Structure formats: C-alpha cells, structure tokens
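dude i think i finally got it to work??
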Amino acid sequence: MFRLQRYFTITSLIAFILIAFLLGYFFRILAFADLIAASESKNVVLTQTFSNFLWPEFASFVSEAGALETDELQNHPRTQELYDYIQAQLNGLSVVKVKVYDLNGLTVFSTEIRQIGENKLDNAGYLSARSGVVASELTFRDTFSAFEQTIEDRNVFSSYVPIYGPGGEIEGVFEVYDDVTPLVKRLEQTQRNIIIGVVVILTVLYFFLFLIVRRADGIIRQQYHDLQESAAALRQARDEAMTASQFKTRLLANVSHDMRTPLNAIMGYTEMMAEGVYGDITPRQRKATTEILRSIGVLIEFISNLLGRAQLESGKVKLELKPLSPREFVEEIQPQVEVLAVAKGLSFHCEVAGDVPDKILGDRYWLRQIALNLMGNAVKFTEEGSVQLLVFREEDQWGFRVKDTGSGIPAEDQERIFDAFEQAGNGHVGSASGIGLGLSIVKELTTLMNGRVTIESVVGQGSTFTVTLPLHVPEAEMV
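look at this
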C-alpha cells in the first residue's frame, strides 16, 4: 500500500516546526544585535556631549580627586554641582545612572553618591575603555539604584566610554546606564508576533496539503478494499484504481510545485541574510541561517523525489539523448555534494577514468538525478571517513561507482532498499533524513536507460553502488 500520508505527516511537520522556531530565533539574534549597536552608539554620543560641556570645567577636579578621602569626595561642593548639572541634563531621558572614573580606577563621581570613592581598577569594562575601546553589556536587573531611588525589573544597557582631552589623550572614563526595558519588550513582542505569524501560515499550508494527501490516500485504500471484497467487480475496480493512481500522480506533481514557491522564498531570504545583504551577521547568526537552509534542503529533497516519482509513475519520463562531457558533468554536480560532505568533516573525491570518452550520448537531467541521489545518500549515511565517485568504462558500457565508509547495509535489506518508501536497517530504517524514494528512482531511471544498478555492502565498513549503462558515443567522436 502507498504510505504517502504517514511520511508526509512526519517529515513536513518536523520541518515546519523547525523552520518556525529557527526564524524566530534568528530574528531575536538580529534584533538584539541592532539594539546593542544602537544603544552603544547612543551612550557614546551622550558621553561626548557631557564631556564637551563638563570636562573643561571639571577635568582638574577629576585629576585631583585621588588626593581626597572618600567622605571629602562625596561631600565636595564640586560633586554636588556635577550631580545637579547631570540630573538636569538627563531629565526626560532613559539614562538611569552616570559614573566618572579617573585613570587610576577611582570613582570620582556617581549619581548614586554612596558609590563615590570605589575603585574599579580590576573591572574589565573600565580597563577596556581606558585603553580606548568602548565596552558595553545588556543585563536584566531585579533591582537597580537610579538617582538615589530604586527601580525594579529593568533591562539596563551599560557602557564604559573613554573621555578624550584636547590633545587627543584619554583623561578619564564615563560609565552610562540606559534603561532599555521598553525597547526590549517591543522586540520580544515583535518576535512573538513573527513566530505566531509564521506558525499560522505554515499550519494553514500544512493542513491544506494534509487534507489533500489524506484524501488521495483514502481513495487508494478504498479502491484496494473494494478490489479485495468483490472479484465480479474486478474490471471496474481496476479502472477506478488506475484513475486513483493517476490522481495520486497529479497530486504529487501539484503538491511538489505548490510547495516549492514558499520554500524557495524562505530559502532566498535566508541566503541573502547569510550573505550579508541586510547587514553583517555574527558567527552565531550564521550558524542559525545554516540550520534553516539545511532544514529547507530536507524539504526540497523530499519534494524533488516526490516529483521524480510522480513523473516515473505517470510514464512521462522521455529520455533525450544529447552529447555531454562526463568530465564537465562531474564538475557540475561535484560542488553540490562536496559542500555537504565538508560540513560533516568527510573526505570527498571525484574521478573520471582516463578511458572514458570525451563525449557520450545521455540525458543530462536524469543522469544528474541518479548521481546526486547516490552521492547524497552516501554523505547522509556516512558519519566519518570518505565518499568517492568514479566514472568508469567497461568495453561497450560506462557508469558511476559511488563508494562510502558509512554504516553499511545488512544483506537481508539489500534487495528491498530499491523499493519506493523502503529503507535499509542498521541506522537507515525510519531515518528522519529521508523517506526512501531516492534509490527507487535510481533503479527505475537506470532500467529506463537499459542499464542496471548493483550494491556491495558490509555492515560497519560501508557500501558501494554501481550504475552500469550502455555506452553511446556521438558519431563525431567515433574513430
């Protein structure tokens, strides 16, 4: 029986959930990166504004503060003047605390008076600013002292910023605390809205496709039941089963086509993010985009195999034999598999034997499907070691040989792996990486080309798949 409903449900549901989660997570990373950059720029500008107005008047007081006792410094008239001035300037702003340090780490001034006189010489942020590099941090505070009052549950962005004198040398350090709680709440709300929106869209798409697939599956099952129940009705049941099969084939083609459009859009925007079209991204953000692209790739592979299966079952596959270069063919498909192998830390090698003609007759599109399915499976089920592709010639035949050092396939499974929706044991059955269409497509295409596919495999040592095809050479290449 055709088991489209089960495999579609499991594969697409997992992929949809993963895509929704990763898109929300990726937005959060980007949004908070923008928030940190904007807040740090704001604190730097604020520091520059303060230093332009305050530093000429208070620079001497900061440089001489080290000679004063803590009580003298806290009660100094200049301290009160500075406090009044800063409080007036910050009125209506989101800044909740300002501190000034001399070059010895002494807290010369703080809007929280009791902190005046403390030493921050061992503070990494202070030391960074004293060396000329702004240091910032976003933290959540249960309680926070701001202008001699306590505020609660605040997201605070703090920056240590160097203060430069007239000659361009660093003369002190400002520390500015900015209350960014409203911004953080807006970002979190936007993130929730995006996740909800993506989930709603994917859920609608998922259930729409699920209903169609379930209907097709139900028709097939019903026709099969009717066939078993009534042999006087055999001819009618056969005709109806053929109609249902044609419907299934059209359904697979339509579903594949309709799913490609939103998936290609998601992949396109994600690739643009990864390439920095919307701005530079961090290594963590790049890792997130890579995971999104990998998940979409799983769905696209699933869809491509469904479409190939539908074309084969409908009898619409017509081979177009045209001259092609085996070496150029390998150079064309090699990068698509090599990037997957490298990502898993595998060694990957392609070779065209020297006795293979420069030109042969073949259908490039369907030959590409055969080679990519074999190599993709080899990479998918190999965790360490290597994957190799050899294009060879044997008298009046030619073909591919794909060898891997993966987990291998038990002897009892080596026949059925070429059936649709069947997978081998020893780590292959029920794998979330595929649904068992690739090898069935390889076998049917090879048979259509009057060739054969064979397997040699030892559990724990790896597998070798060999596709052998009739060798047809263009007349211009014949000697």
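The longest strand covers residues 149-164.
im so relieved honestly
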